[in-house]
Amino acid sequence: MVDMMKENEQLLQRYRPPNPAAVKRETFERDILFAYAWPEFRIANICEWAGAKNDARAWYQSALQVDPEFSQAREALARLEH
Questions:
Q1: What percent of the chain is modeled with pLDDT above 70?
Q2: What are the residue ranges of helices labelled H in the chain?
Q3: Average per-residue pLDDT in the chain?
Q4: Does 56 reside within a domain?
Q5: How far apart are CA 71 and CA 82, in angstroms?
Q6: Helix, strand or coil, per DSSP, at residue 65
Q7: How many Cβ atoms are within 10 Å of 65's Cβ, its own excluded?
Q8: Is pLDDT above 80 for 9?
Q9: Helix 29-49 / helix 53-66 crossing angle, nearest 10 deg
Q10: For residues 46 and 8, what is the distance between their CA atoms, to the nearest angstrom?
């Protein structure tokens, strides 16, 4: 799991997601923002499933930085807080 996270961290450094504040929510740009946040969300799911809650929390937060309206990531983060 550590290798997976490191490899993905390197790949994600190459990403250039749009600024969430600049995205026109009523257009396809909303879908693009979601697509950029999805990998971090999936990694968070894997970490959570493996019991690595601190890592999962960090990845969920990272997904929310990319897409602050990503409801599934917000719900998962809230679940970890309880």
A1: 91
A2: 2-12, 29-49, 53-66, 71-81
A3: 89
A4: yes
A5: 17
A6: helix
A7: 14
A8: no
A9: 180
A10: 13
In-domain check, residue 24 = no
Domain range for 61 is 1-9+39-82
Integer Cα distance of 55 and 32 in angstroms:
25
Residue 14 lies in a domain: no
In a domain, 49, yes or no: yes
pLDDT per position as a tens digit, 61-81: 999 999 999 999 999 999 998
Residue in this structure with the two tokens 């807080």, named with its chain if needed? 81
- What are the Cα distances from residue 66, in Å, to 34, 53, 60? 8, 20, 10
For 6, 24, 44, 46, the CA distances from 1, given in Å and listed in that order, are: 9, 36, 11, 8
- Domain count for the chain, please give it: 1
pTM of the model: 0.85
CB 67 within 8 A of CB 33: yes
